[in-house]
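Quick one, tokens below:
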């Protein structure tokens, strides 16, 4: 019998049995009292998790859809936008913005490095004419495993007055995100990471400055028009047919998070990160990111001298059914990435380390 594949990738992540059972039920109609009740519950619960009193929309799309929704509702052709770039996903903000006609100024750091909030402050201070309308930020850069100091960066943006547009796809639900307190204007996330669902839902938080930007935005939009979602949400529904099965699953996954306790969930992710990083160093491997900037959800590591990422990934999969991710784009074949978010526990990290040790030894590395 083949072993069940174990996903140690940065999404999709393992789905708990309780969530799978909730999703497996027959779908309910989306224009029903039962669905409205479920939608209201998940929206309220997600707002608690994100510490937000603003609006939260549930989209049936992947995380990139939510990113596009954020830009389509805030950036008009010709608007100046500062994009904080440090890897594949932060660069995606810049590309979407350009697709909508925004004039992107990139503040770029090398892959594996964090965005320095004081550098952001300096760029924004120099913009005395206040031309920069929005700043795109990636809280947790999944392509390298870097967690940025969102609180400090959002404060720098708020001091300038631009709209902060944040991707928290691979951090939300795994570490603190305090939307109101940190002054974040728009924040997007997705279902298939720390929220422990399959892919298919995305979420957009919109606060008052986000609405202000939306009211002036001339970019074309239809499916992702925030105004439509707001009108529907006020009536506890969605403008279009939502993925009702995943909303049922979300209710189950948020129940699990509430039962464990949000702070306990965050602490578990911190613990997993530390155990994994210590274990990798013990195997003689080099971590791609310093401790100070290390992500609580994804760890990137270099292969040992003489071994390829491909050979390590293939052996982990064929011998132990453990799937880890390659590097992306310029980092393909240079690093491999181990995801540890959502439904992941100490046992899973220890098992991955043990399997990695066996594989590396067999491939000739002295652990
Ligand atoms: N942003 C980050 C930080 C991500 O990790 C991902 C997916 O891995 C995305 C955006 C894109 O999400 P999706 O693949 O759901 O469109």
């Amino acid at each position: 019998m083949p072993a069940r594949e174990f996903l140690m990738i940065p999404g999709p992540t393992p789905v708990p049995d309780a969530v799978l059972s909730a999703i497996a039920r027959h779908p309910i109609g989306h224009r029903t009292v039962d669905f409205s009740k479920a939608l209201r519950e998940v929206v309220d619960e997600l707002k608690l998790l994100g510490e937000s009193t603003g609006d939260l929309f549930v989209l049936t799309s992947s995380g990139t859809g939510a990113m596009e929704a954020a830009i389509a509702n805030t950036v008009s052709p010709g608007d100046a936008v500062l994009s904080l770039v440090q890897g594949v996903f932060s660069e995606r903000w810049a590309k979407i913005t350009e697709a909508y006609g925004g004039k992107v100024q990139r503040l770029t750091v090398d892959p594996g490095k964090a965005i320095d909030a004081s550098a952001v402050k300096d760029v924004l201070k120099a913009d005395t004419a206040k031309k920069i309308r929005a700043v795109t930020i990636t809280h947790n850069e999944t392509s390298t495993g870097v967690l940025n100091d969102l609180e400090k960066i959002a404060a720098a943006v708020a001091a300038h007055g631009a709209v902060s547009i944040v991707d928290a796809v691979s951090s939300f639900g795994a570490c603190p995100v305090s939307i109101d307190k940190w002054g974040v204007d728009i924040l997007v996330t997705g279902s298939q990471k720390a929220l422990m669902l399959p892919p298919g839902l995305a979420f957009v938080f919109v606060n008052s400055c986000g609405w202000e930007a939306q009211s002036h935005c001339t970019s074309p939009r239809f499916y992702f028009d925030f105004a439509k979602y707001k009108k529907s949400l006020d009536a506890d529904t969605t403008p279009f047919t939502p993925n009702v099965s995943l909303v049922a699953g979300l209710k189950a996954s948020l129940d699990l998070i509430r039962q464990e306790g949000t702070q306990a969930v965050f602490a578990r992710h911190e613990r997993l990160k530390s155990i994994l990083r210590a274990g990798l160093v013990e195997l003689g491997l080099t971590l791609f990111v310093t401790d100070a900037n290390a992500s609580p959800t994804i760890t990137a590591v270099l292969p040992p001298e003489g071994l390829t990422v491909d050979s390590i990934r293939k052996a982990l999969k064929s011998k132990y059914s453990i799937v880890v991710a390659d590097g992306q784009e310029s980092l393909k074949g240079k690093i491999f990435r181990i995801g540890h978010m959502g439904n992941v526990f100490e046992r899973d990290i220890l098992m991955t380390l043990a399997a990695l040790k066996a594989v590396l030894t067999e491939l000739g590395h002295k652990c």
